[in-house]
């Protein structure tokens, strides 16, 4: 409209472009009285006119008169008119997957270029431009199924120029249809539990090369879970049910095709292998019978058992094993094996019958005779047999049946002493063979005397004392006793009485007595008393002063003086001359002393010491010392701290490692006040004291 207004307002003298090859008088520009936009006028190109054509420039003599305006204006460029749609565009072709839609864009006036836009559900998918009259096409792919396709065209005078937009009526894409579908709806296979059913594969033409098959088996109207292949194995749940398969053929952009097979009824399966059972075990009463069912096929069958006596089922005999009883004796025994399995026909199989013979009675405990086979005792039968067994007894003496000896026990009177006795037991039980068992013969001995308290020895243990044997007590009481005395395990000749007087030969020895208790019809009971250990007695070896030869008149050893004075002198000699060189060692002091004579000594001289005796192994173990002398530590006195409260100053004490009288044997000594404390260690052998008064252990 702006262009039109410009044209209307141009001065009359303004020259307008003219069509090529025409010259007209100047005239005002024509005005279309209609309200529509004027058709566009293409201005002539600038520059010299073509040959034979008038110049576009006005000459002074050729200008048309025009109304003069105060201002001179430049003529406006006239735009070309928009194309006019005469017939709207249409979508040609069947809107189905796999097809092609086309359009020529409709009919137009003034159009030189058409822009096509294909829009699916509001989303442009294809845009193309063509010259007027040229068609555009859209191939329908599976993803377009069910969607709305709209075509919009824009007509313009030339490409990229503004134009007029017009849309074709929308169409909806239909899925494609499978063609040439061929399928047999038969179900192959026996519809028995455990068997496999199958359906064939449908065939179709190449209308959908990517077609997919889905299978679903049904039990009645219910889909069977996981049964989604062309094959299906019948289960126990299918017995009596209608079984069929549905096959679905599908592909993107295609209408699915559902195919249903014929229906078959599930039936129970039968065992392929159903063996006749066998029975193992000894065919007699009391024996275990074992059923062997064999191998059933297919596996997984539950096997149950029922035993029969003849044709009657035995109550409670429903295990794989059965122990025959007396009721089975002489009867025909068999077993039934019943196989059950879900989805299978239950099958019974019977074994061959076997006749049951009499059983063997088997002892549950060995037969024996318990008790003491001696006069005065009763022996009994010890045995073990199955319940329901009865017994008969017969006792034998030296192989001959004892009259009246038919009980389970037998008493031995004196007449049985020295006889060999045994028993035969005969056992019987219904359904079992009678059986006899005999024990081994045993010799009957004399009665035993039982010791209740052991013999013992009483009496003083000093030399010359009399010992008495207490024989002890017995059951039954013996009628007589005999004795034998022993010294250190050796019988003392002639010592066969109840009493025995100790002699010097018994010094330090162990004395025992053997007591033999006797009774008629009884074995003598011999018992030894506990040993009586005698102390070592002091035996006088030297009776007074003198010089003695070692080895003949006195043997090496430890001796004790028995004098009471304080002027005891002794010396150990290596010869018998008067020279001091013959003195190995000597002593002077209290007569309460000891001397250790060594094997190397030749002689021993004593004066004022009294008699010399052997030394006993025991002592007083005193805790106070009241007299001067030499003491054995640990035997005569105990070690420890001793306290002296005397008033003199000539107290002498010495710790001794021996009693040989040598200086080397004095471990320590003391001379001084009698008010003293002395420690006597346990490891010293002797302690000598002179002039110290009384010493008391603290």
Automatic annotation (TrEMBL):
What are the UniProt keywords, alphabetically? Answer: Signal
Biased-composition ranges, Pro residues, are 27-46
- Origin, by domain of life? Bacteria
Q: Which residues fall in a compositionally biased region of kind Low complexity?
A: 47-84
Query: Signal sequence: where?
Result: 1-15
Could you tell me which residues belong to the region Disordered?
A: 19-103
- Protein name, please? Uncharacterized protein
């Amino acid at each position: 409209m702006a262009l039109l207004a410009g044209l209307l307002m141009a001065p009359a003298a303004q020259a307008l472009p003219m069509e090529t090859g025409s010259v007209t008088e100047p005239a005002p520009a024509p005005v279309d009285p209609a309200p529509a936009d004027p058709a566009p006028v293409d201005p002539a190109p600038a520059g010299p006119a073509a040959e034979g054509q008038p110049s576009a420039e006005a000459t002074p003599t050729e200008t048309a008169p025009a109304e003069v305006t105060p201002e001179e204006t430049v003529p406006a460029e006239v735009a070309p008119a928009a194309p006019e749609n005469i017939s709207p565009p249409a979508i040609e072709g069947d809107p189905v997957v796999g097809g092609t839609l086309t359009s020529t864009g409709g009919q137009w006036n003034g159009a030189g270029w058409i822009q096509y836009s294909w829009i699916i559900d509001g989303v442009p998918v294809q845009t193309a431009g063509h010259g007027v009259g040229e068609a555009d096409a859209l191939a329908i792919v599976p993803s377009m199924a069910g969607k709305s396709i709209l075509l919009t065209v824009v007509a313009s005078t030339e490409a990229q120029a503004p134009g007029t937009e017009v849309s074709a009526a929308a169409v909806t894409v239909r899925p494609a249809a499978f063609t040439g579908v061929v399928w047999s709806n038969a179900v192959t296979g026996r519809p028995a539990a455990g068997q496999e059913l199958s359906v064939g594969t449908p065939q179709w033409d190449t209308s959908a090369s990517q077609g997919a098959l889905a299978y679903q088996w049904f039990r009645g109207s219910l889909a069977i879970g996981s049964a989604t292949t062309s094959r299906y194995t019948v289960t126990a749940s299918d017995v009596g049910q209608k079984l069929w398969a549905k096959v679905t053929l599908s592909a993107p952009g295609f209408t699915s095709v559902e195919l249903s097979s014929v229906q078959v009824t599930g039936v129970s399966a039968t065992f392929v292998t159903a063996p006749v059972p066998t029975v193992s075990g000894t065919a007699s009463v009391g024996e275990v019978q074992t059923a062997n069912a064999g191998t059933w096929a297919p596996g997984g069958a539950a096997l149950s058992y029922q035993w029969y006596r003849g044709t009657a089922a035995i109550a409670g005999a429903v295990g794989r094993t059965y122990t025959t009883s007396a009721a089975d004796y002489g009867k025909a025994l068999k077993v039934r094996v019943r196989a059950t399995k879900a989805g299978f026909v239950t099958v019974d199989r019977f074994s061959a019958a076997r006749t049951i013979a009499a059983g063997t009675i088997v002892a549950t405990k060995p037969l024996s005779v318990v008790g003491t086979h001696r006069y005065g005792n009763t022996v009994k039968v010890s045995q073990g047999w199955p319940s329901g067994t009865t017994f008969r007894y017969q006792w034998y003496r030296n192989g001959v049946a004892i009259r009246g000896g038919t009980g389970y026990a037998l008493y031995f009177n004196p007449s049985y002493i020295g006889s060999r006795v045994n028993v035969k037991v005969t056992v019987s039980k219904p359904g079992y063979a009678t059986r006899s068992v005999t024990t081994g013969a045993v010799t009957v001995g004399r009665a035993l005397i039982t010791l209740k308290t052991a013999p013992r020895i009483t009496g003083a243990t000093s030399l010359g004392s009399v010992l008495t044997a207490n024989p002890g007590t017995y059951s039954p009481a013996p009628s007589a006793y005999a004795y034998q005395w022993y010294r250190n395990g050796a019988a003392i000749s002639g010592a066969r009485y109840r009493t025995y007087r100790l002699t010097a030969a018994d010094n330090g020895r162990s004395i025992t007595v053997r007591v033999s208790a006797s009774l008629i019809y009884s074995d003598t009971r011999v018992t030894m008393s506990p040993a009586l250990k005698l102390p070592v007695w002091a035996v006088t070896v030297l009776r007074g002063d003198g010089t003695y030869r070692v080895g003949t008149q006195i043997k090496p050893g430890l001796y004790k003086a028995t004098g009471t004075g304080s002027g005891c002198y002794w010396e150990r000699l290596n010869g018998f001359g008067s020279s001091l060189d013959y003195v190995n060692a000597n002593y002077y002091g209290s007569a309460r002393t000891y001397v250790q004579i060594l094997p190397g000594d030749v002689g021993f001289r004593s004066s004022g010491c009294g008699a010399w005796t052997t030394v006993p192994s025991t002592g007083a173990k005193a805790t106070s010392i009241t007299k001067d002398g030499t003491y054995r530590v640990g035997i005569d006195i105990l070690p420890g701290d001793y306290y002296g409260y005397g008033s003199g100053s000539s107290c002498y004490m010495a710790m001794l490692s021996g009693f040989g009288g040598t200086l080397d044997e004095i471990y320590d000594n003391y001379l001084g006040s009698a008010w003293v404390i002395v420690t006597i260690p346990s490891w010293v052998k002797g302690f000598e004291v002179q002039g110290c008064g009384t010493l008391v252990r603290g």
